[in-house]
Design a protein that fits this description.
About 50% of the residues lie in helices and about 15% in strands. By secondary structure, the protein is α/β, with parallel strands linked by helices. The chain has two domains: about 80 residues, no CATH class; about 160 residues, no CATH class. A hairpin with a 4-residue loop joins strand 2 and strand 3.
């Protein structure tokens, strides 16, 4: 843990310095320290910012630690684009190490509350947040994380949408910034022949989605076998990411909830890179 804390702080500090982001001289804590506290809370304390704050203060990593409320305000003042830029910088490392050019795409549900309690949920409002989790065979109220990973499960791209958004719709909204000649394996939810053709023609990226039994474009036997083996890895990635979550992600606002999700994803990616 000691080595990771130091490495994470150095990475955050170097990243902010590279982009020319400087703090006011009157700040008790730098932005790099605030980022470090958030990442440490996600990695070791299930997102509990106060526990991470107390440990880092007591162990003298950050003696000028802010109060709980002030630290939370400082965290919300950091633009989301900074977290996204950190994630993109890490994903470039994963791209370079992925010589097979094989990628996986899937989505995972993030429940804000049970669907039967959605009518009194103060965090979200609207039917677009009602989704169905096929694995658990139940409706839920919240978000979906749509993610592209390498063949060994390292995240390279993600977006967060309301739970009702279909997987193929979210996939079209993604940048899909992958090298030419890449193969993307997905489940049946990503079957759309026109999109597969345009992706192959304009980006030279082949989307290999699982087929229903009545589909007209069936894959050969070895492709189906390869797909069934590879796709298990992204499910493992989602399981590892979910294990970082607390029993209930506490947030007062929708933006705060999304910020915590992004911090969990960035922290998970950073741990994979270390």
């Amino acid at each position: 843990m000691h080595t990771k804390i130091i490495c994470i702080y150095c990475i955050c500090d170097d990243f902010l310095s590279t982009f020319g982001l400087r703090d006011d001289k009157q700040c008790r804590m730098t932005s790099a320290e605030v980022l470090t506290v958030a990442i440490i809370s996600a990695l070791f304390f299930n997102g509990n910012l106060n526990r991470a704050r107390m440990v880092l203060k007591c162990d003298r990593y950050m003696p000028n630690m802010l109060s709980k409320s002030r630290l939370n305000r400082r965290l919300h003042e950091i633009d989301i684009s900074i977290w996204q830029s950190i994630f993109h910088a890490i994903s470039e490392i994963f791209h370079k190490g992925n010589e097979s050019l094989e990628y996986l795409v899937d989505s995972m549900p993030v429940e804000v509350c049970m669907n039967v309690r959605s009518y009194r949920c103060k965090l979200l409002t609207g039917k677009q947040f009602i989704g169905f989790c096929k694995a658990k065979k139940k409706f839920y109220y919240g978000f979906k994380i749509h993610m592209i990973t390498t063949a060994d499960g390292k995240p390279v791209e993600f977006i967060i949408t309301p739970a009702s958004i279909a997987d193929i719709t979210a996939f079209r909204l993604m940048e899909i910034d992958l090298p030419q000649g890449a193969f993307i394996y997905g489940d049946k939810a990503y079957t759309e022949y026109s999109f597969e053709d345009s992706l192959q023609e304009f980006e030279e990226i082949k989307l290999i989605a699982d087929r229903k039994t009545n589909a007209t474009r069936q894959h050969s036997g070895y492709v189906q076998y390869l797909q069934s083996i590879l796709r298990k890895r992204i499910e493992t990635t989602f399981s590892q990411l979910t294990n970082m979550f607390p029993r209930k992600i506490h947030a007062v606002t929708k933006q705060g909830f999304l910020l915590k999700l992004i911090i969990f994803i960035v922290s998970f990616s950073l741990e994979q890179a270390l």
